[in-house]
Amino acid sequence: MPKVTIDGISIEVPDGTTILQAARMIGERDKADRHVVPPAMCYYTSLKTSGGYCRTCIVKVTKGSDKDPRPMPKPVASCRTAVMDGMEVANTTDPTLIDARNGVVEMLLINHPLDCPICDQAGECHLQDLSYENGKAASRYEFERRTFDPIDIGDTIKLHMTRCILCYRCVKVAEQLTDGRVHGVINRGDVAEISTYISQAIENDFSGNMIDVCPVGALTDKTFRFASRVWFTKPVDAHRNCENPKCSGNVVLWLKGNEVLRVTGRKDQWGEVESFICNTCRFDKKDVHAWTVEGPRKIDRHSVISQGHYQLKREQPLLASPAPNVPELAKRKELKDR
Amino acid sequence: MARKLLFEHIDKPGIRGLEGYRANGGYRSVEKALRTMSPDAVLEEVKKSGLRGRGGAGFPTGMKWSFLAKPEGVPRYLVVNADESEPGTFKDRYLMERIPHILVEGMITSSFALGAKTSYVYVRGEYFYVARILEQAIAEARAAGWLGKNILGSGFDHDIHVQVGAGAYICGEETALLESLEGKRGNPRIKPPFPAVKGLYDCPTVVNNVETIAAVVPIVNDGGEEYAKIGIGKSTGTKLISAGGNIKRPGVYEIDLGITCDEFINSDEYCGGVDGRAFKAVVPGGSSVPIVPYELFLKTPTGENRLMTYESLSEGGFAQGTMMGSGGFYAYNDAQCIVRSTWNHARFYHHESCGQCSPCREGTGWLDKVLERLEHGEGRMEDIDLLWDIQRKIEGNTICPLGDAAAWPVASAIRHFRDEFEYHVTHREKVKDPKHFAREPFRKSAKFATA
């Protein structure tokens, strides 16, 4: 079993584990070490060949392995780089890397509309979290942002291409989960867009999972659009015996009173769906009596629903362990020491 | 005048056809390799020759070939990268247009060494007529028994297919090329795995530039050691340079690696010096390599004469050197505007970014827009530092080298010609006229920045 050290914390992992997975294992082992986990906007564990595009998970490999201790010359995408025995990785401990990641976040935001006040994803948006943790307060981009008209892809999904960060997750869902793929990326460079080619509807049992995997508000649930801000809803775990053999029937119901505003898959602490659900469960079962309610859902991370996420930061010991990407903390410590 | 290896017979009549090519010693390397040598012996000659990839990176070809995985029962492929899209580079086009059989011959010999039964030429979309020339040459070779089953009774089967791209620069990146060849969107793959292990259709694949494969012909004919006698140090053999810009004699030249830069740019045998004004800057290897001031092109930072070799051109690192690149040489005279040229490059990379990874997709467009503003006299002083910061955040953080290629020209232009960028801010009205520098050449201050 190769041993890898990330920001000074070691773990033994199975062969073929990527740096990102190893970091998550460290985070799962001890919550206090979660800061070593790089953010990931495009990688999705259950989708093959995902990852490597967004570059937010880049880390610096300061020692290649015990056999070949040379450092890697460029930052590598931790989601697509397998660990080697004796590898040493710097994530939050390397200022040049933090600078590079801030650069990636800035690039992701320059063409993003920042229309959070009218975006359904606000409150559970990975880009919001990412920019809160790694971004700057102001943008240096002064040009007109790229825009697209929102389009309907089918009765239940709305595509706001303007908000898309081209993570390719929905493309992988279309490729790997659904039959008869009609959805992909067209055009090139900064005018590349997710498209159904000829505005074809996506009619497929599992197409709704695109909404869940979208890290931003580019793909939203039309049955939930503008119904409520997510933080005014109450998430509960629920299940039903779904007729579809591929669907687990394990969902989260987002309730307001006894009204089911929307149904989503269950997301784990890294923001990834545990098991994909079918469109019938997602769009058609909006009656609480159709479900067996298990109890309140604990939202762990990546959401303002979990207020603790933002409080956690204030309660962190000041740089006792390297704090993740919070320059102001460093500044405060400096003031305190003085 | 040095002996030419690739261009020796290029002006002979009928050289484009099989008959004329054969009359001038064509296909000797195939005869020699298939009749008298083992595949490993051919590989050994290529290793001895010290041949380095002519596509831009300069990776030793023999080493690349020896990395090729050889699992049982899995086909191997040779793919020739003829997607020559680098602005300033046109050497492969000239070679394929004039003497297509040298590429076909090189592909047969190389495939024999690699054990590849099928090889592909991926031709740039804009070169559709070159694809026709190649197809004709391949048909001639097939009819004469140089391709097909059991070539020369050796038991070696081989066939070549020509595939025309759709005109994307990114498809010149080897893994994007393979994706495109498979019929998919030309997005670069994430490495590892490298093509030598998992390339075309997930099979071991070698991807080489046209010129590299053509150079295998003289290497096999004369022996690797003979080839390695030309050149200096690790830069052996001859190199095709396509020269353009403000020089007297633009064209494609075959040079011995190791001649001085001064000889190349000023002698009448090659570029023939400047076209009546004074040289200002040189880009020696295609648009993605750093631009250097003329003085720094002639002399290394230590004051020695700079040579046309991989090592000498990059002496001084990124701060004061540049790169051999793909041999797309162009020079600027003092009537040219560096900011305008940098903007032109940035616009190109903005247009050609595949859009897969964020820093390149968004950053190239940003560079383009800021440079456009500067060039049109609407810039501010802070823009120069902003440009520097954007390029720094693209470089090294992307999947493929296109991000680096977009960043380097901007970085080097600011590094060496920062005063000219500043002039664009302080003389807004003047720079609005693109002809301004022809009337009032910009004199840069004597000291080079070394940031």
How would you portray this structure in words?
The complex is a heterodimer of chains A (338) and B (451). Chain A is an alpha+beta fold and 338 residues long. Chain A has 8 helices and 14 strands. Chain A folds into 3 domains: 3-103, Roll (Ubiquitin-like (UB roll)); 111-222, Alpha-Beta Plaits (2-Layer Sandwich), CATH 3.30.70; 227-300, no CATH class. Chain A has helices spanning 19-29, 95-110, 126-134, 169-176, 209-213, 279-284, 308-315, 327-337, and strands at 3-6, 9-12, 58-63, 76-77, 87-90, 151-153, 157-159, 184-186, 193-195, 219-221, 234-239, 250-256, 259-265, 292-296. In chain A, the strands form 4 sheets. Chain A has a 5-stranded mixed β-sheet, with helices on both faces. A 4-stranded antiparallel β-sheet of chain A has the order 13-12-11-14. In chain A, strands 6-7-10 form a 3-stranded antiparallel β-sheet. The N and C termini of chain A lie far apart (46 Å). Chain B is an alpha/beta fold and 451 residues long. Chain B folds into 3 domains: 18-225, Rossmann fold (3-Layer(aba) Sandwich), CATH 3.40.50.11540; 232-333, Ubiquitin-like (UB roll) (Roll), CATH 3.10.20.600; 338-439, Up-down Bundle (de novo design (two linked rop proteins)), CATH 1.20.1440.230. Chain B has helices spanning 18-23, 28-36, 39-49, 61-66, 91-98, 100-114, 128-143, 174-181, 210-222, 224-228, 261-266, 294-298, 310-313, 317-320, 338-352, 358-375, 381-394, 402-426, 428-431, 436-439; strands spanning 77-82, 118-123, 148-151, 156-164, 205-209, 231-232, 235-236, 238-245, 251-256, 279-283, 292-293, 328-333. In chain B, the strands form 3 sheets. A 5-stranded mixed β-sheet of chain B has the order 3-4-2-1-5. Chain B has a 5-stranded mixed β-sheet with strand order 9-8-12-10-11. In chain B, α2 runs parallel beside α6 (100-114) and α15 (338-352) runs antiparallel to α18 (402-426). The longest helix of chain B has 25 residues, at 402-426. Chain B is globular, with a radius of gyration of 22 Å. The two termini of chain B are 40 Å apart. At the A-B interface, α2 of A face α15, α16 and α17 of B.
